[in-house]
Amino acid sequence: MRLKTDDTLRKALHGLYIALFKAKQDCPDDFNDGRLTKILTDIMGVENEGWRVVGITSEALNLLAKKGYDKKKLPRKLCRGHINDRIETTRELFKGEKPKELKEFFNYFLDKDQTVIMLNEQNRTKQFPDYHKIDNLDAELFPNGSLMGWKHGEKERECLRNLHSLQASSRKKQ
For 120-131, how does the pLDDT look when each residue is reduced to its tens digit (9 = 90+)? Predict the structure, then answer.
């Protein structure tokens, strides 16, 4: 929630974005889209709203259900896939003559940086997979662990149990 509420952190991160914007203008060949995306990912990954989980695919949910919703029993099988292409997000943030103002920067970034838990192979396809929505507006579920990983404790397992139960009951009604 700090990316929405902590003015000091927001100003510090926005300042880094402005410095990167200037670096891209001064040295465009050295700050290409891929490099800017990596740097921006590192910077914005300091808080849980970066890479916020907003859904899970049926395949990932069913696989987790078989393992008692314990992610640790599925090493390297799951990932967070970005709904919006991260390079496209970066391109939008770094285009134009001037950097985005603080509020516009955070609104855009947080809207575009949402992720879905999925199987690794689902994240390699051109078509983004269908997914079940997870109410995680405050990014309290599935908080960042490592940069690309996430913490997955009892409240996350309970959320997934409930979602799986809803999925199963909706299939019975059909």
Answer: 999 999 899 999
Within 13 Å, how many C-alpha atoms sit on residue 68's CB side? 5
Q: Is the pLDDT of residue 78 over 90?
A: yes
- Cα-based distances in Å from 114 to 24, 29, 59, 79, 135: 25, 29, 19, 13, 12
Q: How far is CA 150 from the centre of its chain?
A: 10
Rounded CA separation 109/130 (Å) = 22
Tokens of 52: 């916020």
Task: With both helix axes pointing from N to C terminus, report the angle between 86-94 and 7-26 in degrees, rounded to the nearest 10.
Answer: 80
The answer to whether the beta carbons of residues 125 and 81 sit under 8 Å apart is no
How far apart are the two ends of the chain, measured CA to CA in Å? 38
What pTM value is reported for the model?
Answer: 0.90
- What integer pLDDT is reported at residue 147 of this predicted model? 63
Among 90, 89, 78, CA closest to 142: 78
Q: Strands, E, within 16-170: which ranges?
A: 53-56, 78-82, 115-119, 132-133
